[in-house]
Design goal:
Elements (H helix, E strand, L loop, with lengths): L3 H20 L1 H4 L3 H103 L9 H6 L4 H109 L20 E4 L3 E2 L5 E2 L2 E4 L5 E3 L4 E9 L3 E9 L2 E11 L6 E2 L4 E5 L9 E8 L2 E3 L10
Antiparallel strand pairs: 1-4, 2-3, 4-11, 5-10, 6-7, 6-9, 7-8, 8-10, 8-11, 11-12
Bound molecules: zinc ion (ZN).
The site of zinc ion has 7 residues, from loops.
């Protein structure tokens, strides 16, 4: 599972070896110098472990900062994308609005020209009317007065009168039509002018929106850059802490190995290792070299099997530890001698205590889901010189 555990195992190994020797003291009589050397070793180990733990804490904090910073950056990047597409849309709208304004202004120009034409016509019609009333027009047509004065009889006069009236009516209608057309055109022009005003307001608003969006987008861009450089800085700090931890880790492993070599277990297993669960039950859910549910490399065998199923000692040995660990939950480590040990994690119960000598096949605990676990299963490790090796190279698969 995690390598933190390696330290615990090795450390326990050294201490239990010490206890084993202390226990054996009933027969061998303990040497006080030896006990003092165990205490000194323990304090050195404790110091290294505390330093490693502090570095691990720092790394964890940095990882969460990195992840928060990356999340934030991804959100900011989304926001920026949205703002940029908004800017694009606004630009399109602004250009459409400008086109529309151009068209409206052209129409106003046309309306103005038409109005001028109508005004000319009205003026001309009026002049013609007045001229007709007075005298012969310059185009040669007779004036109304002349037409009436040239009447030869009453009936001729009346008939001329009728014609004059009709002509006057025609001029009047003509003038009125021009006038009506002019008024319509003026109304249209007013509407067009109003439209231009509205369009100008819209355009102003669009320009303002665009400016705001551009400002926000550039703020998002600089915030994004800051987050990126924060992430890089955290990553550098993390790498540093990791390197320091690796160094201390190597130092501790080396030190513990030397202690373990000095205090080898009382029991040395000679037989083959056995499947640590009832044969034919359970399912292998993760093998050595796979990934655990958290995506971390897995150097053990996971067997999902019902709660309370007995866990068997895989070989003869001495229980190094049977206690609690934040990741492993209730777990047991058995030292089989010759640098070999096995580990059983996530137990629901422990049937042995540190120092117990066990025979292969003895029930040492029950399956559970304690510690970092997502369901009832046995997490089984085999270690050679403290290094986790593939359990299936030692035990015959029992499911
Ligand atoms: Zn596991």
């Amino acid at each position: 599972m995690n390598k933190k555990f390696k330290k615990i195992v090795l450390r326990t190994a050294s201490l239990v070896s010490a206890f084993a020797i202390m226990g054996a003291s009933f027969m061998l009589a303990p040497d006080e110098t030896q006990l003092r050397s165990y205490a000194a070793a323990d304090s050195k180990v404790q110091k290294l472990e505390d330093d490693i733990k502090a570095l691990e804490k720092t790394q964890k904090e940095l990882l969460s900062k990195i992840s928060a910073s990356k999340n934030e950056a991804s959100q900011v990047s989304q926001t920026k994308k949205y703002l940029d597409s908004l800017i694009y849309t606004l630009e399109t709208k602004i250009s459409t609005s400008n086109e529309l304004m151009k068209e409206l202004n052209l129409k106003i120009d046309e309306a103005n020209a038409d109005i001028k034409v109508r005004e000319e016509e009205i003026k001309k019609t009026n002049e013609k009317f007045i001229a007709r009333l007075r005298m012969a027009h310059e185009d040669g047509s007779a004036s109304y007065i002349e037409m009436l004065l040239e009447a030869e009889s009453i009936s001729d006069f009346l008939s001329r009168m009728e014609r004059v009236n009709a002509m006057l009516e025609y001029d009047k209608t003509l003038k009125e039509n021009y006038q009506a057309e002019k008024e319509t055109l003026e109304k249209e022009k007013d509407n067009l002018t109003l439209s231009v005003q509205l369009q100008q307001e819209t355009l102003q608003k669009l320009e303002q929106d665009k400016k705001d969006a551009e400002k926000q987008s550039s703020q998002a861009a600089s915030y994004y850059n800051k987050l990126q450089s924060d992430t890089a800085a955290y990553q550098a700090q993390y790498n540093k802490a990791k390197a320091e931890e690796d160094k201390l880790d190597a130092e501790l492993t080396k030190y513990l190995k030397s202690i373990q070599e000095q205090n080898s277990s009382q029991v040395t297993a000679t037989g083959e290792y056995m499947w640590p669960l009832p044969v034919g039950k359970g399912v292998i859910t993760c093998t050595y070299g796979g990934k655990d549910p958290g995506g971390r490399p897995h150097y053990a065998l996971d067997v999902a099997i019902p709660y309370g199923t007995p866990i068997y000692a895989s070989n003869d040995g001495t229980v190094l530890t049977a206690s609690w660990h934040s990741s492993y939950g209730y777990y047991i480590v058995i030292d089989h001698g010759n640098g070999m040990s096995t580990l059983y994690a996530h137990c629901s119960s422990l049937a042995v205590t540190a120092g117990t000598q066990v025979k292969k096949g003895a029930t040492i605990g029950g399956v559970g889901s304690t510690g970092y676990s997502t369901g009832n299963h046995l997490h089984f490790e085999v270690r050679k010189g403290g290094v986790r090796v593939n359990p299936l190279n030692y035990v015959k698969k029992g499911v």
